[in-house]
Amino acid sequence: MIYIDPSKQWFHLYCETFSYVLYNADGTLLNLYWGAPLAHTAEEAARCDLSYLLGSFPSGSSFELENRPFEVPAVGTGWFGDPAVRAVNEAGDDLTQLTFESAAIVPGKPALPGLPSVSAENEQAETLELTLRDALTGLQAVLSYSITAGTLERHMVLTNNDTAPLTLTHMASASAPVPFKTGTKGNSSGAVSFAGEGLDVIHLRGAWARERRPVRTPVGLSSYKVESQRGASGHEENPFIALAAPTATETSGEVWAMNLVYSGSFAAEAQVKDAPFAYLSIGLNPMTHRWQLAPGESFVTPEAVLIYSAEGLGGMSHLYHKLYRNYLGHSPWRFRERPVLINNWEATYFNLSEEKILAIAGEAKKLGVELMVMDDGWFGNRFDDHRALGDWVENREKLPNGLKGLAEKVNALGMMFGLWFEPEMISPDSDLYRAHPDWCLHVNGRRRTEGRNQLILDVSRKDVQDFMIAMMKRVLSSANIQYVKWDMNRNMTEAFSSVLPAAQKMETQHRYMLGLYRVLQEVTDAFPEVLFESCSGGGGRFDAGMLYYMPQTWTSDDTDAVERLKIQYGTSYVYPASAMGAHISIVPNHQVGRVTPMKTRGEVALGGNFGLELDPAQLSEEDKKEATALIARAKTVRSLTANGRFDRLISPFVSNYCAWQFSDDDRVLLLFAQVLAQPNYIPQRVYLTGLDPAALYEDEDGRLYSGAALMQAGLPMEFARGDYQSRTILLTKRKD
Ligand code: DGJ
User: Fold this and answer.
1) How far is CA 28 from CA 23, 128, 178, 698, in A?
2) How many CB atoms lie within 10 A of CB 38?
C-alpha cells in the first residue's frame, strides 16, 4: 500500500512485511525509515508521524546536508561516497543535484521497457512514481516503487529534458540507508568497531564449479563492494547483497537485502560513512557501463528487489522464493511439474551420435526419465570446443536422420526431446565467422581474446540479434524440440561494439543485455510450450533476469553430491528450488573424483529440478534399481519441492552435516546428510521448522509425530555406515 500525506511531503510504502518511508525535505528526498511495518492500514499510515526523526540531522553548517539519509545520493548534494546517480554535463562538471518535483500513484505495475521485471501481484497493485529534477542540466529522474508479495521493487528512469547531451556514469537501481542499531560503528560519537555490533554484510561468492557460497562478515568502518565486470552476472559474485544484524539467524533477526533483476555486469555496495547507517545500493557497474543521454532520451535502470525480513535469512529467502516462483516471467512452465531429464554431456561429451543418444534415451526411459536432452556437439563441425559455434546446422555424420528424425525416435520411446544451444557465441573456426568477422565484440587493432576458443557475438547489434532469432526459430521449428538449454561459456573481453560511435562505446555491455533480452523475449514468445533452461558454464549467469525468460537454470557444472549440498544451500538464499537444475552423475565424479553413493547423489538432487547426467548403461544393476526408486520419488515430491516453503536447517559450511526441509500444507520433505562418517557416532538431532505444532505428521512407515515434537524435540539423524550418507524423510500431515 502507498500513503501520501496531504502536504505531499511524506511517502509511506507499507505491507505486512515492511515499511519504507520517504520525506521531501525542501527538495531533498530523504529515506527516513526502512524496516518492520509501521502501519497496516491507511489510517495507521496517516497517524504515523515520523517528523521527530528530522531532529537527528545536523543543520546550520555549510555541509548541513552531509550524512543525511538520501534516497538518491548524487554528486554535489553533500554526499561524499559513491553516488547512485552521476551525470557529466556539457560544461564538464558532474554535479547532479536532483530536487523533488512531484509524486504520483499509477495503477498496476508497469513493465520495464526492454528489461525483465517482476509482474504485479494483483489488480489492486499500484506504483509510486516520484519525479526529481536537476534544474541546471535538465536531468529528470523518475523513481518507481511497487510492492509485490511482501517485497519492494525499485527502478529509475533518467530523462534528459535539456538541449545538451549528458553522460550517465552512475545509475543505480536502488540505494537506501540501513540503520546501525547496535554499537557505535560508523557513528560520529566515536568510530569504533566492536565484534558483534554494527551490521554484517552477506553475499554469494564463488567460482566455476563452486558457485554461490554465502559469505558473512562485519561490514566494518569502510565500504564493502561486490561486483561483476564480466558482462554476465558471473560465477564469482551474484547480484545480491544483504545487511543483517550480527545476531540474525536463519529464523530471527533483521535483514535488509537487494537483488538485481539483471544478467550483466553489476555492482552492489554497503558504504559506511560517519552516519548512523550503512548505505546499501545495487545497480549497473559504473566501471563497465556508461550511457550517452541525448536530449529527449530516457534511460531505464534494471529493477532491484528489496526485502526487509524480521525473520532472519530464512524469512528473506521465503520472500524471494515466493516472488520469483509466482511473479517473474511468463513461461507456462513456471507452474508445471518439470520433467525428469537425462543429459548426455558427461556421458559422451562431443562424441555423440544418433545411436548413442537413442541408447541413452532407451535405458533412461526404463528408469522413468521423461526428457532426453542432447547437449553440445550436434551441429556443424563441432567435434571439440575449438570450432563451429555459430554453425547451427545438424551434423549429418553424427545425426544421419537429422534433428527431426532423432526427435521422432525419442518421442516414439515416449520421451520428450531437448537440445543444447550457445547462441551468443562464435568460433573463429566457423562458417559464421568467415562470413561475418566483424560480428563479434572487438576493438579494431587489438587482440580478440578467446575464452574456451571462442569469441562473443556483438548482441548489441540488431542484425546479430535478428540472426539469432531467425536461427533459433528455424531450428526449433525443424523438429519436435520441447526443451532448450541456453548456454553461455565465457565472459566478455574487448567488450565493445564496432558499430557504435566513440561516445557510445561504453554502452556496449548494456546494449548487449538489452539485445539479448529482446532475442529471448522473441524466441520464448514464439515457442511458449518449450521449457527453457539457462546455463553459463553451470551457474555463471544464475540471476533473476535470466529466470524471467527461462524458469530454470543449470545450477553448476559440479554434480558431486557433497559439493552440491553447498551449492544448492547457497543458491537458496535468493533463488527457489524450482529454479535449480540438480542431476545425478556418474562416479568417480568428473569434477572432484569423489565416489558417493547413488542414494546420496539422488537425494541431494531431489532439492531441485531432478535429472541425470550420465550413461545409464554404465550403472550397476543395484544403482539402476536405486536410480529408478529415486526418479519415482522425484516425481512424488516435485510439486512440493517446486512450490513448497524451503528452510535451511543445518549449514554444510560450518558442520559435517547438512539439512534442509520443504513443506506445504500437506507434506514435509526433510533431507539430512553427513559428509564424513564418524566412529562412535551418537545421532545428532535435526529440528524441523514452520510446522503446525498441533498437527500430526505421518512418515512412510506409518509412524506418527506431532508438529511440536518435530520442531522442539527434533528427529535423530541416523545414517548408514560409510562416508557421504544421506536420508530423506517424507511426512504427510494428517487431516483427520
Ligand atoms: C557448459 C555447461 O555447463 C555444460 O553442462 C555443458 O553444456 C557444456 N557447457 C557444453 O559445452
Assistant:
1) 8, 17, 18, 59
2) 17
Residue 667 host element (H or E) = strand 667-674
Catalytic residue among 162, 376, 557, 647: 557
Residues 6+ apart with CB under 8 A from 40: 14, 16
| Tens of pLDDT, residues 361-408 | 999 999 999 999 999 999 999 999 999 999 999 999 999 999 999 999
Max Cα–Cα distance, the chain, nearest Å? 82
User: 205: exposed, middle or buried (C-beta count within 10 Å: 0-12, 13-18, 19+)?
Assistant: middle
| Degrees to nearest 5, angle at CA 487 with 368 and 226 | 115
Separation CA 102–CA 18 (nearest Å)? 24
d(CA 433, CA 437): 5
Taking the C-alpha atoms of residue 172 and residue 496, their distance in angstroms, rounded to an integer, is 22
Residue whose cell numbers read 532475442: 519
Q: What is the pLDDT of residue 94?
A: 96
- Distance, in Å, from the CA atom of 307 to the CA atom of 56, rounded to the nearest integer, reads 25
Pairing of strands 609-613, 580-585: parallel
| Residue 557 known to be catalytic | yes
pLDDT tens column, 180-209: 886 544 444 444 555 556 899 999 999 999
Which residue in 534, 591, 526 sits closest to 564, CA to CA?
Answer: 591
| CB of 608 closer than 8 Å to CB of 556 | no
Residue owning the nearest CA to atom 2 of ligand 1: 537
> Of all helices (H) and strands (E), which one includes residue 469?
helix 462-478
Residue type, 491: N
Ligand 1 binding pocket mutation candidate from 341, 352, 376 (most atoms within 8 A of CB): 376
- Please tell me the distance from the alpha carbon of residue 552 to that of residue 549, in angstroms, as a whole number: 9
Which helix (H) or strand (E) is 533 found in, with range? Answer: strand 531-534
- Taking the C-alpha atoms of residue 649 and residue 646, their distance in angstroms, rounded to an integer, is 10
Q: Find, among 240, 232, 321, the residue nearest to 283 by Cα.
A: 240
At 348, the amino acid letter reads T
- Rounded Cα distance between 89 and 717, Å, is 64
The answer to whether the beta carbons of residues 713 and 685 sit under 8 Å apart is yes
- Three-state DSSP class for 138? coil
Give the C-alpha separation, 307 to 286, whole Å.
24
Compute the distance between CA of residue 293 and CA of residue 169 in angstroms, rounded to an integer.
10
Q: Do the beta carbons of residue 710 and residue 678 sit within 8 Å?
A: no
Long-range contacts of 718-722 (CB under 8 A, 24+ apart): 718/683, 719/674, 719/677, 719/681, 721/677, 722/597, 722/677
- 112-161 pLDDT, tens digit each: 999 999 999 999 999 999 999 999 999 999 999 999 999 999 999 999 99
Of the listed 134, 487, 543, 647, which one is catalytic? 487
**Does the C-beta of 345 come closer than 6 Å to ligand 1?**
yes
Q: Are the C-beta atoms of 254 and 236 separated by less than 8 Å?
A: no
